[in-house]
Amino acid sequence: MKHLFIFLAIFLISPSIISCNDEEPISSNSNVTFKAVLDGGNGATGTAVLTFNATTKIFSLAVTFIGGSATTAQIYNEGAGSNEQFDFHLSDLTSPIAYTSFALDAVQEANLNANLYRISLKNSAYPYGEISGMLIKEGTTVGDGGSPPPPPGLNK
To answer: What residues make up the domain containing 47?
Structure first.
């Protein structure tokens, strides 16, 4: 009887010991969301939602806008010294715009996570941007803790 009790105790305790480890569970959600409010002061407005998959390094973008038109659309790095490098050119220019990126390199991913990317929709009447807005990671704030800062100089 004593051996049966020891056997049962080992049998019941061992699965919990074997399954214990110090590793954190891996999150099944590797998506990070960025949003932009698009404005240009000319009556056209819009929104952009970018969903970045931190595992694949690819993002999907959805842009909707009203009151304007676009002949070009880009996402560029507005960080210091970037010389407004256009990292992503959008080819679908009709609202709603849908875009899927190539895999971002480490610098592009760092710039995205640092809230350095601006989306800009341009046309011949507004070559520096009819509407634009900063892509800001959900849960972060910029500047005064409110909305993204206005475009520097002319809308780009």
So the answer is: 31-137
